[in-house]
Every structure is written in C-alpha cells, then in structure tokens.
Amino acid sequence: MKKIRNMANVDGVITPVGEARIPVMDRGFLYGDSVYEVFRTYGGIPLFFDEHWERFENSARLIHLRLHPGKREMMEEIRRTFRASGAGEAGEDVYVRYCVTRGEGPVDLYPAPELPTRYVIVVKELAHWRDDFYSEGVRLAISRTRRNPINALNPNIKGGNYLNNVLGVIEARELGADDCVMLNDAGLVTESSNSNVFFVIDGELVTPSENAGHLRGLTRVALQEACSAHDLPIVTRDIPLEEAARATESFITSATREVMPVRSLTLRHGSAVEFPEGGGNLTRQAMAHYKDFVERYLREHADQRLN
C-alpha cells in the first residue's frame, strides 16, 4: 500500500516537509506575523474550504495584511501539493494547513507596506486521535492563563502567535489533563486550546457567546446548523465557571477532532467534574447529527475533490 508523503509548498516550491525552508528574517518566524487556516479532507474533498477562506480573509483584515495569492490560486497550489503527497493514490485523507506571512524584512516591529508576502502550504498525514478520547472522553482542566481579550489580540485572528494557547495546554498537562479550558478576564468560559467547547447545563445544550472571546469555529457553526435541523437547539450565551462546574455533559469540536466527548473538567481548586463515559445523551445526538451533516456536505461538494 502506498504511503502518504508529508509535503510543503513555499511560494510554489514543493518539497518534503523536512526540506522546506523559509528565511529566518521572515516576519512569520520573527513575530508570528501571519494568518493561517487548517482543514481536513474526506475522500479527497476539503471540508468547508469556502468557509475557511472567508475566515482566512477576515483574519487578514484584522491584522491589515494583504492576501496573496488569492483563493483560486491558493486552491490550485494546495491541489499541487496534495498530488505531490501521493494521498490520492494511497486513498488516505490529509491535514492541510495554509499560511500567509507578512514576508521578509528588517528586524523592526513596523512592517513596511511594500514587503511581498509569503505563503506556505503543508499537506501531511491526518493525525489520528486516541481511540479512548471517543470511547471514554478527553480530560480538560481550567488553565491559570486567561484567554487574550478581544481588545488586546482578538481570538478571531487565526494567526501565527499561539503562545496564549500553548501556555494553557502546558498548564492543563501539569494538572494531569489532556487539554485546557480557558477563561476570559471576567471569569467566563471561552474555548479550549484549539477547540470550541459545549456543555449541558440544566438540560440545555449551551456554548459560549463570541462576546466572551474565542475563535469562530467552523465545526461549531456546522454543528449548530446540524442540530437545529434535528430540533436540538444550541443556546449561545455567557457561561460563568460556576455554571460549567455543574454541567452534566460536555464536548469539544474542531476540524480534526469533529465532536469529541469530554470525560472530566478539573477546576481551579483541584476538584473535578465528571461526565458520562463516551458522552451523554445530548453529546451522542450531537455527534450523530454532525456526522450526517458532513456526509451531506461531501455529496454536495464532490466537485472540489483534490485528486
């Protein structure tokens, strides 16, 4: 059986990931001055590519970055990189990450407007989450580090500076958890390190409002639509930590995790809230509705297949 080759594309030059190079003076490397998106494929079809591109454009607007290449050219370069990976022949799905940096310039915080941007595409083997994360659930913990405030570094900038989230994960691991849940300065739940979070509180399926400060997750949006179509409402509102502490179910969502049940939530004082193994009733309904939604999406977007 053919094996996927992890490949990178830097400004049109495609190489194995280990041979890809960017200059050390690139602002994406020096300052995290870049924006990016990640999607996965199903049967070679990119999931939510149009929606990802819209969010990519929004991130670029928020940091005053001129995007180059455009959507059509970026898709063609992704397609070239995908083909070079051999994923189509191997019949395997992949992780795709595309990024645009502000480009190469002097060591100066101010980016000269004439700097040419640089793009980087990575196509690699899709990460497989541990089986027990679905059969039992992922363990989360409240991190000490708070989520960036919207008026400091807007979490809707999906950019190269992820140190805020990195610190959250480190702290969660120190508490024996797999990932974190981050609060904002007001003590409201925002999100996990790179996933949106949902709770069942008083029998109601809820997720934090965007006012709390979190990335507008595309899987979150798709799940809301999927559940609405099956008369399972998801309420978007502020969630104080004390309310999350009395939740009876929880799960997280992302492009690669899909809908992943949460097994426990460790609180700031060390105690933990336990949730049903493998997800409770509403969690399992959400998982099923999302799966149906993705299957329908793939049928409707078969023309976007990369191979």
Describe the structure.
The chain has about 300 residues and is of the alpha+beta class. It has two domains: about 5-125, Aminotransferase class 4, branched-chain amino acid transferase, N-terminal domain (D-amino Acid Aminotransferase, Chain A, domain 1, 2-Layer Sandwich); about 130-295, Alpha-Beta Barrel (D-amino Acid Aminotransferase, Chain A, domain 2), CATH 3.20.10.10. The chain is about 30% helix and about 25% strand. The strands form two sheets. Strands 7, 8, 9, 10, 11, 12, 13, 14 and 15 form a nine-stranded mixed β-sheet that branches. A six-stranded antiparallel β-sheet has the order 2-1-6-5-3-4. A hairpin with a 5-residue loop joins strand 8 (about 180-185) and strand 9 (about 190). The mean pLDDT is about 95.
